[in-house]
Structure of Preprotein translocase:
Amino acid sequence: MFGDLSFVKLAVIAVIAVALFGPDKLPEFIQKTADLLRKVRAASDSAKQEIRSELGPQFKDFEFEDLHPKTFVRKHLLEGDALPLEEIRNALDPRAELAAVVEAVRRPADATAAPEAPTPRVNLTKDAQGTPPRHPPVDIDAT
């Protein structure tokens, strides 16, 4: 429940608690909070027992933790040899398909195909007669 609390976080919480409740009232507050948590836990345990007894004997091994989605998936899908999990992982892995696409792109064209004619290069600095292209006059006021 408190697995992600580090020592620094606990120290900050303690300092804030002392500042809010004062050093004389803090032990009383902690005791009342612990009593409240015990009562809540006892009420939830009795509610669980009541639900189990109402469900009947066929649900005697029913655990409420199994209702959590992660636990449900782990228990019913990942445990046992019901599913070929490695096959599913490999089928969902896109690396093989991407490698095939990369190979197809890198593969040279077939040797039997006719070679393409080279595309002529266009010289943008000179026209067909060898003279540089004329640019329209620039209007300094317009720009």
Observations:
- The mean pLDDT is 78.
- Residues 122 and 128 are 9 Å apart (CA to CA).
- The longest helix spans residues 7-55.
